[in-house]
């Protein structure tokens, strides 16, 4: 992926259903305290709707079970359309050091590239590194984007949307807004 990670990240294969510890692949283990980043680390529904107006509700929030490496705290929020056909998932993972964040990010990139039939998606520079990819599984397209920025890894994924340049641009702008929110927590 052009710069770097469907950190949707491994949410690519999991984004058809809400991200919970029971339904998403466990890449990371919760920190010793099971720490969650504050809810306001991830942008709220009304901001997500500026990019994807058809999502109307927050479906789940909690630990990001798809985080890679050893984050000290995470937060994942999934938003869906009323009928559940469209989904936007945003995650933020905090690491003790920039090296830990980079290692987690690189692991996510490697795992994302290993997803069968994943295709690179070009995105502009975001953070220190960014990677995006799309895949269609069971008739549903998923586009995921991940960003490494200091001690944070941010992911944004859409499901039920086509991988059009317009949707990718909106996902990129959403990820950019989330990087700012995560940095300002």
Outline the structure in words:
With about 180 residues, this protein is of the alpha+beta class. The protein has a single domain, classed as Protein Transport Mog1p, Chain A (3-Layer(aba) Sandwich), CATH 3.40.1000. It contains four helices and seven strands, in the order ααβββαββββα. It has helices at about 10-15, 45-50, 100-115, 165-185, and strands at about 55-60, 75-80, 85-95, 120, 130-135, 140-150, 150-160. The protein has a seven-stranded antiparallel β-sheet with strand order 1-2-3-7-6-5-4, with helices on both faces. The longest helix has 19 residues, at about 165-185. It is globular and about 40 Å long. It starts with 10 loop residues before the first helix and ends with a helix. Mean pLDDT is about 85; it is low at about 1-25. Keywords: Signal. This is Lipoprotein LpqN.
Mean pLDDT score: 84
Please report the total strand number as a whole number. Answer: 7
The strands making up the biggest β-sheet line up spatially as 1-2-3-7-6-5-4
What is the oligomer described by this structure? single chain
Signal peptide: 1-16
Protein name: Lipoprotein LpqN
Keywords: Signal
